UniProtKB/TrEMBL annotation:
Annotated organism of origin: Acer yangbiense
Domain Reverse transcriptase Ty1/copia-type residue range list: 1-64
Name of the featured protein: Trehalose 6-phosphate phosphatase
Lineage: Eukaryota, Viridiplantae, Streptophyta, Embryophyta, Tracheophyta
The family this protein is said to belong to: Belongs to the trehalose phosphatase family.
Needed co-factor(s): a divalent metal cation
Keywords annotated in UniProt: Hydrolase
Length: 329
């Protein structure tokens, strides 16, 4: 019927058959044997081009749930991770995927001893709404165990060391909790002070290095104060990470988040020896000492016996802003 109609129209008017419709009034049409799709691919492409985002990473769910990006007060440094992860192609070019250079890494590692450092949350485990349930999968545990059998491996997390240990449950890796402020190694280091010999839960001899030991009473005080103050914020959670404190706001109503942040900042004015760092829907409160995941990595390399050696290649895998300190090292 359509063919008949078309030839009748061509007979009366000056017309050309352009075949299947692919573009009409700015809307693209893709036709297959079983379906007709209407799309705005070109329009979106033009938009991306206009904002210089042609090479941006496509994502099915482009931002984290409840994440709020604001035009006012947008903090380029604080929100950099969000930009890197979700939006801008230039940042992605600056931070390309390591997997794209896997062969180059193998070439660099040739003849060298690999030393592996891993973050926990978001790296070995998924980021979940309840931080107490950030479990790693059995497959991941097997992978880490196998890697740790081949190379010295350490897990450096912001969480308290007991919690990371409880999540990972491997005895062939070394653990560092509290953003590297609580390190337990079999041997310790001769270069550093503040080390105490101890026995871990499995009965193994360990040397504990805790450079923020003197802050412990104040951390406990901060936790007490924060726990009282967050009660008015439904969904907010204070996590005791022994030498640091996390205030999680992932489950807080987004209208309340700014007020919560203000509360944390104003409360911490009474504790000038502490600083606050941002993370993924979390505020990290830490003692302001010259110690971080990067320094922890140096300490661990020393305890692994790599100081003064050049035939090793440290690999650090992490996903959050506090990991940047280790990347720098
Ligand atoms: Mg992480």
């Amino acid at each position: 019927m359509i063919v008949e109609f078309m030839s009748a129209m061509i007979g009366h008017f000056e017309m050309t058959d352009l075949g299947l419709m692919s573009y009409f009034l700015g809307i693209e049409v893709t036709q297959t044997d079983d379906a007709i799709f209407v799309s705005q691919k070109k329009y979106i492409g033009d938009m991306l081009k206009k904002f210089k985002m042609e090479g941006c990473k496509p994502m099915l769910i482009p931002v984290e749930e409840r994440l709020k990006l604001e035009k006012e007060g947008f903090d380029m440094v604080k929100d950099k991770e969000i930009i890197i992860e979700y939006c801008h192609s230039e940042e992605q070019e600056e931070h390309p995927s390591a997997l794209d250079s896997f062969e180059d890494m193998i070439a660099v590692a040739e003849g060298k001893k690999l030393v592996l450092f891993l973050d926990y949350d978001g790296t070995l485990s998924p980021i979940v709404n309840d931080p107490e349930k950030a479990f790693m999968s059995d497959a991941m545990r097997v992978a880490v165990r196998e890697v740790a059998n081949l190379f010295p491996t350490a897990i450096i997390s912001g969480r308290c060391i007991d919690k990371v240990n409880g999540f990972v449950k491997l005895n062939n890796v070394v653990y560092a909790g509290s953003h590297g402020m609580d390190i337990w190694t079999p041997t310790g280091s001769l270069k550093y002070g503040q080390q105490n010999k101890s026995i871990d839960e499995q009965g193994n001899k360990v040397v504990k290095f805790q450079p923020a030991q003197e802050f412990l009473p104040t951390v406990k005080e901060i936790i007490q104060v924060m726990e009282k103050k967050i009660k008015t914020f439904e969904g907010a959670m204070v996590e005791d990470n022994r030498f640091c404190v996390s205030v999680h706001y992932r489950n807080v109503d987004e209208k309340e988040v700014d007020t919560l942040k203000e509360m944390v900042h104003s409360t911490m004015k009474a504790f000038p020896k502490f600083c606050i760092n941002g993370g993924k829907m979390v505020m990290e409160i830490r003692p302001s000492i010259n110690w971080n995941k990067g320094r922890a990595l140096e300490y661990l390399l020393d305890t692994f016996g790599f100081t003064g050696s050049s035939d090793f290649l440290p690999l650090y895998i992490g996903d959050d802003t506090t990991d940047e300190d280790a990347f720098e090292v």
